[in-house]
Design a protein that fits this description.
Elements: H1 2-25, H2 33-49, E1 73-75, E2 85-86, H3 89-103, E3 110-116, E4 119-126, E5 129-135, E6 141-143, H4 146-150, E7 166-175, H5 177-189, H6 198-205, H7 211-215, E8 219-227, H8 236-245, E9 255-257, H9 260-273, E10 281-288, H10 291-297, E11 307-311, E12 315-328, E13 334-345, E14 348-354, H11 358-364, E15 371-376, E16 383-387, H12 430-441, H13 453-461, H14 476-480, H15 487-499, H16 505-511, H17 519-529, H18 532-537, H19 540-544, H20 551-562, H21 564-576, E17 596-600, H22 608-617, E18 621-623, E19 632-635, H23 641-649, E20 654-655, H24 657-663
Parallel strand pairs: 2-11, 17-18, 17-19, 19-20
Antiparallel strand pairs: 1-6, 3-9, 3-10, 4-5, 4-7, 7-8, 10-11, 12-13, 12-15, 13-14, 15-16
The protein binds 2-(butylsulfanyl)adenosine.
2-(butylsulfanyl)adenosine (IVH) binds next to strand 3, strand 8 and strand 11.
Length: 666
């Protein structure tokens, strides 16, 4: 039977790799996303049951390994240069003239590639395997972000075909607008401040120290520069065509242009067509195609002479600031929004723009009635980039930020070091209370689909639900008494609420809407502490000892459960019959019974949570630090040096992932 499973697993692994390649590299998927996810789940399930048959390069492994302590700074093998830019067609003609003159030719072939707005990355492949990914940094040295980059699904971990034994390929990591919007929706749902643009998120994502968190960010890559000591190619386009053949994701919309005239045609086309792309481009990179010519042209001190970036004009409009409204989020965070005299920008009418926070208003020095410059540089959220002070009418002065909540009048607070103001009246400020109900019933929390945003608000306005547990006291006739409420809808609401009582503890915990307790944190808390009483009574030390729970989350939890009201909410939810403890852990044997193991580093086959689950399923316990009581230190790549030293000093056996798997005989 295991031979069977082994074969099936290998077959499914192969199939998923092909689907990944079709989806991310060829952009020609042959199955739906749901089908893919189902298949991936199946493989994940098998790999958990039969880790000895798991392929270390399985598509499931692109979801991230363990935590990273620090990013190592590493020198670039070849300096990572930037490009000269221009916004003008004349300068582009001059560039072409310089190129032709230096080479002594009448015209040259160029490759045009869209300049995607992301962050530059350098990948190293050895014997067809991705071995290192480094950010640009200062051009001489960058951060080693290999583990994070491995989680990007369009980054090919293992190549196919006839590739050189060693090479470097550079490109851009970026995020599609859809993914960016989804991420911001999630942030809004968690009451957190929104990201300004996809570029910032892409670059921020690579600096997250938890590859599993990075894996959740929908990042993409495009690889546009092949480099190797013995370059076998005659042209840039041939090198990228070959790279594409090895399974690497190269630019989709590039074009080989016979001369500068064809380059201008490309620019004209994409200045308009880029608006229909799902990601931001801020220009076109124009490269001399012949690599011999590239070498002859060489570099200035800063940039290559064989390439230039033509930047599209960003569109700016000037309009009047009619007023500022202040939105209050679920956690009480205040966001100022500029209300503008409607103005047309890149084909859409802009009426509102985010002003982010009080600091931004101070920076701009803007007043109501001012003429402001609004810009949309390919980004979806328009921003106010400045004030036309020459048009300021007498009597206008800088906006004074509100001191009180626009919804409930409570004085606002701003914590030290935070840009955002908050309304502290979380118990009775309408948008906060409604937001909390909405969050509790949301799909990822209790999933009560019969209550949407409007219904959550109606329940609050009718004084039926002021706090989350009130939901479980609702009676059919109370709901029926609401305006425009039918029997069927009311029945659905009651049934939906009743059904939610079987939702897992993790979902309940996430649904409570405690600041900074998102889905992942809720899972970690439930797994580490087991039930709500332990979480409510945990000290700062106990909380921060949990993997990934830092001071900020721990403080927020302690503060939340200091409130009598919040504690009594829990009593009421318990009385209503909600699940307030984690599901029983799986038991697979007792080969580690009574043993305490400490885990450190990143592992090849399993992530840290899985290693922990494996140990616990075999009767062992996982300790936070190496002490005299530790039986084994399970060491992965990049293990913390202090743990290693301590284990050696105390003569504690240091074992690897495979040793552990052998110990439990799977
Ligand atoms: S070639 C020496 N090609 O734009 C050649 N760069 O403003 C260096 N970029 O640092 C880069 N798309 O981060 C090249 N198709 C493309 C590009 C591209 C985006 C970025 C890259 C570079 C920056 C220069």
């Amino acid at each position: 039977m295991s031979v069977d499973i082994q074969q099936q697993m290998a077959q499914l692994t192969k199939e998923l790799k092909e689907h990944n390649y079709r989806y991310y590299v060829l952009a020609e998927p042959s199955i739906s996303d749901q089908e893919f996810d189902l298949k991936l789940k199946q493989l994940e399930h098998w790999e958990q049951q039969y880790p000895m048959f798991a392929d270390p390069h399985s598509p499931t492994q692109q979801v991230g390994g363990g935590l990273l302590d620090e990013f190592k700074t590493v020198p670039h093998k070849r300096r990572m240069l930037s490009l000269g830019n221009t916004y003008s067609e004349e300068e582009l003609l001059e560039f072409n003239e310089r190129v032709c003159k230096s080479l002594g030719v009448d015209s040259v072939e160029y490759v045009c590639e869209l300049k995607i707005d992301g962050l530059a990355i350098s990948l190293f492949y050895e014997n067809g395997k991705l071995v290192q990914a480094v950010t640009r940094g200062d051009g001489f040295q960058g951060d080693d972000v290999t583990e994070n980059v491995r989680t990007i699904r369009s980054v090919t971990p293992v190549l196919q075909g006839n590739f050189p034994a060693e090479f470097e390929i550079r490109g851009e990591i970026f995020m599609h607008r859809k993914g960016f919007e989804r991420l911001n929706e999630q942030r809004a749902a968690q009451g957190e401040a929104l990201y300004a643009n996809p570029r910032n998120v892409a670059s921020g994502s690579l600096k997250i120290k938890d590859p599993q968190e990075v894996a959740k960010r929908p990042l993409d890559i495009t690889l546009y520069h092949f480099l190797s000591d013995s370059n076998p190619f005659a042209t840039h386009s041939a090198s990228l065509d070959a790279a594409h053949g090895w399974g690497l994701k190269t630019p989709n919309n590039s074009k080989l242009c016979k001369n500068i005239q064809e380059v201008f045609d490309f620019l004209k086309h994409w200045d308009e067509a880029r608006k229909g792309l799902g990601y931001d481009t801020d220009g076109v990179v124009i490269k001399v195609n012949n690599l011999q010519y590239q070498q002859e042209l060489g570099f200035t001190a800063k940039v290559p002479r064989w390439a230039i970036a033509y930047k599209f004009q960003t569109e700016t409009a000037c309009t009047e600031l009619l007023g500022i409204t202040y939105q209050v989020g679920r956690t009480g965070a205040i966001t100022p929004v500029a209300e503008l005299d409607p103005v047309s920008l890149l084909g859409t009418t802009v009426k509102r723009a985010s002003l982010h926070n009080a600091n931004e208003i101070d920076r701009l020095g803007v007043g109501i009635g001012d003429w402001v410059f609004v810009e949309k540089g390919g980004e979806i959220i328009p921003k106010i980039v400045g004030v036309d002070f020459s048009r300021r009418k007498p009597g206008i002065s800088q906006v004074e930020y509100i001191q009180e909540c626009p919804e409930c009048g409570t004085p606002l607070v701003r914590q030290e070091g935070e840009a955002q103001h908050y309304c502290p009246n979380s118990e009775a400020c309408a948008p906060q209370v409604i937001g909390k109900i909405e969050h509790f019933v949301a799909r990822k929390a209790m999933d009560i689909q019969s209550i949407g945003s409007e219904m959550a608000e109606a329940l609050y306005r009718n004084n039926l639900v002021n706090r989350i547990p009130d939901l479980y006291d609702l009676q059919l006739d109370q709901i029926l008494a609401m305006d425009r409420m039918g029997q069927k809808s009311a029945q659905n609401i009651i049934e939906g609420i009743a059904a939610s009582k079987t939702q897992s503890f993790e979902r309940v915990l996430f649904g409570l809407g405690i600041r900074y307790v998102g889905e992942t944190v809720a899972k970690k808390l439930a797994a580490a502490l087991g039930n709500i009483q332990n979480i409510m009574n945990a000290s700062m030390e106990e909380l921060t000892a949990i993997d990934e729970i830092g001071d900020r989350i721990a403080e927020s939890l302690i503060q939340h459960f200091q409130s009598e009201q919040n504690r009594s909410d829990i009593d009421r939810l318990l009385a209503a019959g909600l699940i307030m403890k984690a599901a029983e852990k799986l038991s697979l044997g007792d080969s580690l019974k009574g043993k305490i193991l400490v885990i450190s580093g990143v592992f090849a086959k399993h992530d840290r949570d899985e290693i922990k689950a494996i140990i616990e399923a075999h009767g062992g316990k996982v300790g936070a630090g190496v002490t005299g009581k530790t039986d084994f230190l399970v060491a992965g790549d990049g293990i913390g040096p202090s743990k290693l030293e301590k284990a050696q000093k105390l003569n504690i056996p240091i074992i690897g992932e495979d040793d552990l798997l052998q110990m439990i005989e799977i």
